[in-house]
């Protein structure tokens, strides 16, 4: 599938490229603004938070904040639109919430895990979804913990291995199903290919499966609706799209999988304005834009009469190679359709614009 | 009049020889002629030579009169050489022109491709610019939105200072607004908004549920036959091992006539193995060997049979047989995977012991070291290996 210019395919246009002097692990748009944040680790072993603003064809550095430990991931998901506090997880297992106007001391801080926090997600903030604002962190120590910024020191939920079980690194976490005040679901992906779905309302494991290869990234298409679709990406270039509307008692959720890139798929991000379009970023420095098509019937009855889901199909809309190093982080702007930022291990952050998304 | 093409004729400069096979006309001219421009025409039984002199001068005669044979020869050779050179030069010139033509063609294609590429680039640029403009517009909208919000905030602060009951009258109170120094209409509407948002915010905060009651969910991780994730596994080898084991179990060497005399259970190699193990434990080594022998005849692919028989032979001091059996066991225990580690360690240790008892200490040490490599934490093996090393050193010193 080659990039045809002038055709009706969405094009990925590289708008700005900014070279950084540190390794960037996560990049996020600041909601309701043309500003973006880069989080990473400097060569001297400290954490860096940089705030940039988009000015025409370049990025202007507004602020640089240095912290004692390298920062792995961050989210705005659990904060209100007025406050816009950033929640970060660092290499030491600390969860901190920062007010970027006064970043000397964190608003909330807890040493949540014994090892690096690999992934963080927030829900209940930004005017999206309902219910209490919560942050979930997944760490290399095999545990997944849910935090409420109003409760100090102890997590409100803790998913940890059974006593005596050898732990597996948790690589990714995501919130979902937050369509009313009580319902919440956390999905966690581990390095041995396990995907587990925890229901926070009943405090139980709702579903688990194993996709053989380590799970690099999971994301629900929307956090604030009845869970609809879940995309899980893994090593060796595979990703799975699960249809989450119908859960079969034994077979779980129906899925379709696609082997797209020869390398690890590091991230998947759904377009905030269209939940059937998502972008995957790969270890070969490439980005693929996909569209999911629903099947004619989303569920059918099996031989015993219980409902089981039917997975649809995925089609590739566009792909580009931007770098020779893996693109480890990707974020769509929630305010401008098609604007996204990606950070790669070649120490550059790129702002991209995906055109013609209205026509899909 | 037929006009000869020059290539049919072979001109030489000085002597002036025309060779039109099969005929030869030779005339040694007085002075050099310009052979490129000269022509020869045949017609009406005549040949017309049109020769151009190299140097315009009057010739004494057409041909050189006093030409002796040697001079002729020399002149001829010279002419031939010169002609050769000319031919070479011509081919060279042809080559060069060919190359130049090629180059030209290449450059032309390159230019075309450049043009194409440029066209695509231009299209992309246009897209980019269009998109950038949209982005700028949007960004400015955002900025205005932010300004709006900051004014809103000011309005909110202002309101917080005022006591609650005065709020209603404030909406009408324009003088206060004027004192702020900002535009009337804007603030007025902002104030309205401001109060609304404060109210709604308060409501929302009350609506937020309390933090969840802390709870823990215990998880189990997916077990596999081998506890490694795909990226760490040596799946191919492990599958092979499993496959081999499964196959081994299915083999039944059933073409022995004595089998008919055996009881049903005695035909089962596993049962026989267990019997052998029990006899070994009780000290009946010969009996154990018999049991293992029968089991092997039934199924010669089970490595554990050979392993255990090796142990028996060690006890019976049938050292060569012990070596044989341990080797056979090791053969069957390929590919080396974590699952058959213990068996391999045992095989190496037994073979090592047999070698040592045969006083083949170096071979024995080799086996012990192999065992140590598989299981570095086993102290007994470590101790025995040390002992053997000392023995070897002792024998070397004494010999």
Automatic annotation (TrEMBL), chain A:
<dbReference type="Pfam" id="PF00400">
    <property type="entry name" value="WD40"/>
</dbReference>
<comment type="function">
    <text>Key assembly factor specifically required for the stability of axonemal dynein heavy chains in cytoplasm.</text>
</comment>
<keyword id="KW-0053">Apoptosis</keyword>
<feature type="repeat" description="WD">
    <location>
        <begin position="135"/>
        <end position="148"/>
    </location>
</feature>
<dbReference type="GO" id="GO:0006915">
    <property type="term" value="P:apoptotic process"/>
</dbReference>
<dbReference type="InterPro" id="IPR015943">
    <property type="entry name" value="WD40/YVTN_repeat-like_dom_sf"/>
</dbReference>
<dbReference type="InterPro" id="IPR020472">
    <property type="entry name" value="WD40_PAC1"/>
</dbReference>
<dbReference type="GO" id="GO:0120293">
    <property type="term" value="C:dynein axonemal particle"/>
</dbReference>
<protein>
    <recommendedName>
        <fullName>Dynein axonemal assembly factor 10</fullName>
    </recommendedName>
</protein>
<keyword id="KW-0677">Repeat</keyword>
<dbReference type="InterPro" id="IPR001680">
    <property type="entry name" value="WD40_rpt"/>
</dbReference>
<dbReference type="InterPro" id="IPR036322">
    <property type="entry name" value="WD40_repeat_dom_sf"/>
</dbReference>
<keyword id="KW-0853">WD repeat</keyword>
<keyword id="KW-0963">Cytoplasm</keyword>
TrEMBL record, chain B:
<dbReference type="InterPro" id="IPR008978">
    <property type="entry name" value="HSP20-like_chaperone"/>
</dbReference>
<dbReference type="InterPro" id="IPR052004">
    <property type="entry name" value="Dynein_assembly_factor_4"/>
</dbReference>
<dbReference type="InterPro" id="IPR019734">
    <property type="entry name" value="TPR_rpt"/>
</dbReference>
<dbReference type="InterPro" id="IPR007052">
    <property type="entry name" value="CS_dom"/>
</dbReference>
<dbReference type="GO" id="GO:0036159">
    <property type="term" value="P:inner dynein arm assembly"/>
</dbReference>
<dbReference type="GO" id="GO:0030331">
    <property type="term" value="F:nuclear estrogen receptor binding"/>
</dbReference>
<protein>
    <submittedName>
        <fullName>Dynein axonemal assembly factor 4</fullName>
    </submittedName>
</protein>
<feature type="coiled-coil region">
    <location>
        <begin position="98"/>
        <end position="130"/>
    </location>
</feature>
<feature type="domain" description="CS">
    <location>
        <begin position="1"/>
        <end position="63"/>
    </location>
</feature>
<dbReference type="GO" id="GO:0005576">
    <property type="term" value="C:extracellular region"/>
</dbReference>
<dbReference type="InterPro" id="IPR011990">
    <property type="entry name" value="TPR-like_helical_dom_sf"/>
</dbReference>
<dbReference type="GO" id="GO:0003351">
    <property type="term" value="P:epithelial cilium movement involved in extracellular fluid movement"/>
</dbReference>
<feature type="repeat" description="TPR">
    <location>
        <begin position="345"/>
        <end position="378"/>
    </location>
</feature>
<dbReference type="GO" id="GO:0007368">
    <property type="term" value="P:determination of left/right symmetry"/>
</dbReference>
<dbReference type="GO" id="GO:0007507">
    <property type="term" value="P:heart development"/>
</dbReference>
<dbReference type="GO" id="GO:0036158">
    <property type="term" value="P:outer dynein arm assembly"/>
</dbReference>
<keyword id="KW-0802">TPR repeat</keyword>
<keyword id="KW-0175">Coiled coil</keyword>
């Amino acid at each position: 599938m080659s990039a045809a210019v002038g055709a009706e395919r969405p094009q990925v246009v590289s708008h700005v490229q900014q070279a950084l002097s540190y390794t960037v692990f996560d990049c996020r748009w600041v909601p309701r603004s043309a500003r973006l944040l880069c989080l990473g680790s400097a060569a001297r072993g400290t954490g860096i938070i940089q705030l940039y603003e988009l000015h025409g064809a370049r990025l202007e550095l507004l602020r640089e904040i240095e912290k004692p430990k390298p920062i792995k991931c961050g989210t705005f998901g659990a904060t209100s639109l007025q406050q816009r506090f950033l929640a970060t997880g660092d290499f030491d297992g600390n969860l901190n919430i920062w007010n970027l106007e006064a970043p000397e001391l964190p608003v909330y801080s807890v040493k949540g895990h014994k090892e690096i926090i690999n992934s963080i997600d927030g829900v209940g903030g930004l005017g999206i979804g309902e219910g209490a604002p919560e942050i979930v962190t997944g760490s290399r120590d095999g545990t997944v913990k849910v935090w409420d910024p109003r409760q100090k020191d102890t997590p409100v939920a803790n998913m940890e291995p059974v006593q005596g079980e050898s732990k597996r690194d948790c690589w990714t976490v995501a919130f979902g199903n937050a369509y009313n005040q009580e319902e919440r679901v956390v999905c966690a992906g581990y390095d041995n290919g396990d995907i587990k779905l925890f229901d926070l309302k009943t405090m139980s494991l709702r579903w688990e499966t194993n996709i053989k290869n380590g799970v690099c990234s999971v994301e629900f298409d929307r956090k604030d609706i009845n869970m609809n679709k879940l995309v899980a990406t893994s090593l060796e270039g595979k990703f799975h799209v699960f249809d989450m509307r119908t859960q079969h008692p034994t077979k779980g959720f129906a899925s379709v999988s696609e082997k797209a890139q020869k390398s690890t798929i590091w991230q998947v991000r759904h377009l905030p304005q269209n939940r059937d379009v998502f972008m995957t970023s790969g270890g070969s420095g490439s980005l693929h834009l996909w569209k999911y098509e629903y099947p004619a019937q989303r569920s059918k009855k099996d031989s015993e009469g219980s409902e089981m889901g039917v997975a649809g199909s995925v089609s590739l809309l566009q792909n580009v190679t931007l770098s020779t190093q893996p693109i480890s982080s990707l974020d769509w702007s929630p305010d401008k359709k098609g604007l996204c930022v990606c950070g790669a291990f070649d120490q550059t952050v790129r702002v991209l614009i995906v055109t013609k998304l209205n026509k899909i | 009049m037929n006009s000869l093409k020059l290539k049919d004729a072979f001109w030489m400069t000085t002597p002036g020889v025309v060779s039109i096979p099969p005929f030869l006309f030779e005339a040694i001219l007085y002075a050099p002629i310009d052979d490129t421009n000269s022509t020869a025409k045949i017609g009406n039984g005549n040949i017309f030579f049109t020769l151009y002199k190299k140097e315009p001068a009057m010739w004494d005669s057409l041909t050189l009169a006093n030409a002796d044979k040697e001079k002729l020869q020399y002149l001829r050779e010279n002419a031939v050489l010169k002609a050769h050179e000319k031919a070479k030069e011509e081919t060279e010139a042809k080559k060069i022109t060919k190359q130049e033509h090629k180059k030209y063609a290449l450059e032309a294609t390159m230019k075309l491709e450049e043009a194409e590429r440029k066209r695509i680039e231009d299209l992309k640029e246009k897209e980019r610019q269009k998109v950038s403009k949209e982005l700028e517009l949007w960004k400015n909208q955002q900025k205005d939105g932010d300004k709006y919000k900051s004014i809103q905030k000011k309005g909110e602060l202002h309101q917080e200072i005022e006591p609650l009951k005065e709020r209603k009258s404030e909406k009408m109170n324009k003088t206060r607004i004027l004192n702020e120094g900002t535009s009337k209409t804007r603030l007025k509407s902002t104030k309205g908004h401001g109060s609304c948002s404060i109210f709604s915010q308060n409501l929302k905060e009350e609506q937020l549920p309390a933090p969840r009651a802390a709870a823990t969910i215990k998880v189990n991780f997916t077990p596999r036959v081998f506890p490694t994730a795909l990226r760490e596994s040596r799946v191919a080898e492990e599958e092979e091992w499993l496959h081999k084991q499964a196959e081994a179990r299915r083999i039944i060497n059933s073409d022995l006539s004595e089998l008919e005399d055996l009881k049903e259970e005695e035909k089962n190699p596993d049962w026989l193995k267990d019997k052998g193990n029990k006899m070994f434990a009780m000290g009946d080594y010969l009996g154990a060997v018999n049991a293992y022998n029968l089991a092997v005849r039934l199924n010669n692919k089970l490595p554990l049979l050979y392993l255990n028989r090796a142990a028996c032979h060690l006890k019976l001091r049938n050292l060569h047989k012990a070596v044989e059996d341990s080797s056979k066991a090791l053969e069957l225990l390929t590919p080396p995977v974590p699952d058959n580690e213990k068996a391999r360690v045992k095989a190496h240790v037994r073979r090592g012991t047999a070698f040592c008892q045969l006083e083949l200490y170096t071979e024995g040490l080799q086996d012990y070291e192999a065992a140590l490599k598989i299981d570095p934490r086993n102290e007994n093996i470590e101790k025995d290996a040390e002992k053997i090393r000392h023995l070897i050193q002792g024998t070397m010193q004494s010999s």
